Amino acid sequence: LLPADYKLPFKFERDLEALTRTDFTSRIHYVQASWSLLKNCDAVVRYCCRAAGGQQGLWAKGRPDRSRLADPQAAILEPLLLPLELVICTVAEEIFAESGAEQVRLRIRETVKAMPGLEQQLSVCVAYLRDRIGVPRDLPLPSAKVLRSYLAETYRALRGRE
After folding, report:
1. Which among 32, 58, 122, 134 is most buried, taking Cβ atoms within 10 Å?
2. What pTM did the predictor assign?
3. What is the chain's percent helix, strand, coil content, to nearest 5?
């Protein structure tokens, strides 16, 4: 159930949530997951870059009335914006294509090949987004699970894990 444990291919039949027959066969979940990254790509990328700024969670430190995940004052690491945008757009393409795990890993490694040394920071940014997808605020549950699966696979590719 943890977002970090999601893997491709995502199988709706093993889901604990009540799903309809349409949920098992519908392409809409992949389209919604892909579109959620692309429709507001700049904001998504800026949001993810908070993770690499090193100040996430400080806003809530010692304040039980604040969410540790909110981070409105976390610094954005500007040099990561373009590389992360390339990664996020690649993830969106692969979701839309309903690509398998191997294809996702291959495309992500291809994308970051021209950016040596950024894999660690990019993986932190991807994990930050993966762990903060909200249902139903951001996406319907099946679409959110598809998105988490692809982001988890992207994280593993950036970390060099299979």
Report:
1. 122
2. 0.82
3. 60, 0, 40
State residue 148's pLDDT score: 92
d(CA 22, CA 24): 5
Asked if 72 and 149 touch (Cβ cutoff 8 Å), the reply is no
Going from the C-alpha of 67 to that of each of 58, 64, 94, 119, the distances in angstroms are 10, 7, 32, 28
Torsion angle, CA of 28/39/144/118, rounded to 10 degrees? 130
140 within 8 A of 32, measured Cβ to Cβ: yes
- Quote the CA–CA distance of 118 and 124 in Å, as a whole number: 10
Q: Give 115-144 pLDDT, tens digit per residue.
A: 989 999 999 999 999 988 877 778 888 888
**99 contact partners, CB below 8 Å, separation of at least 6:** 8, 107
| Closest alpha carbon to 125 in 73, 54, 66, 58 | 54
Give the model's pLDDT for residue 14. 57
Distances (CA, A) of 11 to 23, 92, 132, 151: 11, 19, 21, 15
